[in-house]
Amino acid sequence: MTGYILKRLISAIPVLLGITLIVFLIMALIPGDPATAILGSYATPENVAKLNRDLGLDAPLWQRYFIWLGNMLQGDFGQSFALNRPVLDEILDRFSATLILAGTAFILCAVFGIIAGVVSAANQYGVGDKAITFVVLLGISIPSFFLGMMMVLLFAVNLKWLPVSGMYAIYGGGDLWDLLKHLVMPAVALAIVATGVVARLSRSAMLEVLRQDFIRTARAKGVDERDVIWRHALKAAMVSIIPVLGIQAGFVLSGAVYIEMVFQWPGIGRMLVDAILKRDILLVQGGVVFVAACYVLFNIIVDVAQSMLDPRIKT
Fold first, then answer.
1. What whole-number distance in Å separates Cα of residue 293 and Cα of residue 16?
2. For burial by CB atoms within 10 Å, which of 74, 87, 183, 250 has the most?
3. Left (φ > 0), alpha (ψ -120 to 50) or beta: where does 113 sit?
4. What is the pTM (predicted TM-score) of this model?
5. How far apart, in whole angstroms, are the C-alpha atoms of residue 113 and residue 280?
6. Helices (DSSP H) in the chain: which residue ranges?
7. The pLDDT of residue 48
8. DSSP secondary-structure letter at 82?
9. Domain boundaries defined on the chain
10. Domain spanning 91-309 has what CATH number?
11. Which phi and psi angles does 86 have, rounded to 5°?
């Protein structure tokens, strides 16, 4: 198992290097002068030239990339122009909020998606199967940001059950109950599409397992149908479900960008949007690479978990 984990970690290195190169080139090819955008009304030719020298933007493109990459490998993501603080500190401060939101959404999509898929497969072509399929297709078809805005309009503006935006109340609050009230709408809006995907693929995996010989043998021996479904069939189907969960973990992490903007959640997604608008290049590059690294790490964890369930995968 250790050798397999090392192999997966080594294989992730070229992926991460490719991501750093793509992110750097995209930011470098954006039209306009970053120094001019940063200085605003103070963008005289002398000030622009001085800032370009200070930021190293007057160096050749390849040299700037290797300097940035070398510094990042040493843990130095650079200094944020707009915030005047280290990029890594800002990312880590924001990541806790994003992790709470994305983690909650992932738990919701994993639990309810698997349950819905199992129940649907166990009642194939029945009323429950058709109802779940309809709800799943409806959830997949609705964009998360649109659902979020409709939830704000209904539950916050009209019914006044939940707060409109933010992570905590501006005045008072700050406890766990306050956090949960602010978390409900963004987490549900972010999880709804992922839940539908997990439910559909869980149903397909369960239907394939339920047709296998060992399930017929268990039923022939008189094993209770609940045990057949939830203990035997689900355990075998998890080998196919776990990779889907890994993909959806990356989806909810990246999807947090626009959900955080809808609900003004103080996470990495909102930070990246603000940094892009301010042309804060190092903050954008550092944030995107950090999120991409988390995505790759999630997939490695999923691969390891899948190989523990099915050792044949390692070969």
1. 7
2. 87
3. alpha
4. 0.85
5. 38
6. 2-29, 34-39, 45-55, 61-73, 87-122, 127-141, 144-151, 176-210, 213-220, 225-227, 234-263, 268-277, 281-309
7. 76
8. T
9. 2-73, 91-309
10. 1.10.3720.10
11. -60, 140
Tokens of 167: 């992570």
> What is the token pair recorded at 244?
């889907």
- Supply the angle between the helices 144-151 and 176-210 in degrees, to the nearest 10: 140
Do 113 and 197 contact (CB within 8 A), yes or no?
yes
C-alpha torsion sign, points 61, 62, 66, 72: positive
The two structure tokens encoding residue 39: 């200085």
Please report where in the chains the tokens 């709470």 appear, as a residue.
100
Q: Tell me which residue of 294, 287, 298, 263 sits closest to 94, measured CA to CA.
A: 287
Under a CB-based contact definition with an 8 Å cutoff, are residues 102 and 253 in contact? yes
Round to whole Å and give the CA distance between 39 and 123: 63
Identify residue 68 by its one-letter amino acid code. W
Tell me the CA distances in angstroms from 150 to 147, 153, 262, one per residue in order.
5, 5, 11
| Chain segment 213-245, per-residue pLDDT in tens | 888 888 888 888 888 998 889 988 888 888 888
The C-alpha angle 156, 157, 159, rounded to 5 degrees, equals 70
User: What is the residue whose two structure tokens read 């149908």?
Assistant: 225
